[in-house]
Design a protein that fits this description.
Blueprint lengths: L6 H17 L10 H14 L11 H13 L7 H13 L36 H36 L1 E2 L2 E2 L4 H30 L2 H30 L10 H13 L14
Antiparallel strand pairs: 1-2
Length: 273
């Protein structure tokens, strides 16, 4: 496989990133800005990215949008609708998106799981291969959400390390902080590799192998993202443990995405036996 993004995929990434940067919450206080959320919702709806699969998009393209939306803490539904769209495409009829959790307050302040149904009843109507591919897409998309949140938290920490001074120097100039941020970047790069393979495999690998690749990606990205988010809080020091710091918002999103379609090492056949 060629892991490089095509020109069209790169354009999709840039468009999703711009939308997230322009309309995503730039501070904790903006999470309760109803006007911003309404503008964000109308803009996301206008892109029609929630129906990417019906439009013939690959698992890679779904992952691209999911990743950038998590990086920018986009707080309107995407994962639930795009998976419902994929299920509708496979069934040949519309599947309603659950709205029951859209406004529910919980651990994740960005409500990234709004509309998600982890085991839709309609899955039983699909052939085994279609059901497996839907599951592989669900795992890959949630892994992409984890990667995006890790990238956002890491960028937040790097920006803070560049401006926060102690003893006359920015904290990023100290070896201990630099090493922590470098280790986080290494985890992110590893997540990118394993996710790209899983997202590509949704459509290109045999169905059982696609699920296996997506499970591995979910485990790796979940562990990496939690470490990166916890590191970001540590880099911020005391302010990192306050409500006003966005680092905890990223961590909350990571914890929620980790809990969706949970996978343990016991579920993975590493071929070592």
């Amino acid at each position: 496989m060629d892991v490089r993004l095509t020109a069209e995929q790169q354009q999709l990434r840039e468009a999703a990133a711009k939308l997230a940067d322009d309309l995503g919450p730039g501070a904790v206080q903006e999470l309760s800005d109803d006007g911003r959320i309404a503008r964000l919702e109308s803009t996301v709806a206008a892109t029609e990215w929630r129906s990417l699969r019906s439009d013939g998009a690959s698992g890679v393209e779904v992952a691209i949008v999911a990743e950038e939306f998590a990086r920018g803490l986009v707080d309107v539904p995407f994962l639930g609708p795009v998976l419902a769209d994929d299920l509708s495409r496979r069934l040949g009829r519309a599947v309603p998106v659950s709205a029951g959790v859209a406004g529910t307050a919980g651990v994740d302040l960005t409500r990234s799981s709004a509309g998600v149904i982890e085991t839709p009843g309609e899955l039983g109507e699909l052939a085994a291969e279609d059901s497996q591919r839907w599951y592989a897409l669900a795992l890959a998309a949630s892994a992409a959400d984890l990667l995006g949140a890790a990238r956002g938290a890491h960028a937040l920490a790097c920006d803070y390390a560049k401006v926060r001074e102690q003893y006359g120097s920015t904290i990023g100039s100290y070896q201990a902080i630099a090493h922590m941020l470098a280790e986080g970047l290494a985890l992110i790069e590893g997540s990118i590799s394993v996710l790209r393979h899983a997202a590509w495999g949704v459509d290109e690998l045999p169905a059982d192998e696609a699920v296996q690749a997506a499970r591995i990606a979910k485990i790796y990205c979940a562990r990496a993202a939690r470490t990166v988010c916890e590191t970001a809080i540590q880099v911020h020091g005391g302010i990192g443990n306050t409500w006003e710091c966005l680092a905890h918002v990223y961590l909350r999103r990571v914890l929620t995405s980790t809990g969706l379609w949970p996978v343990g090492l016991e579920d993975i056949d590493l071929g070592l036996s």
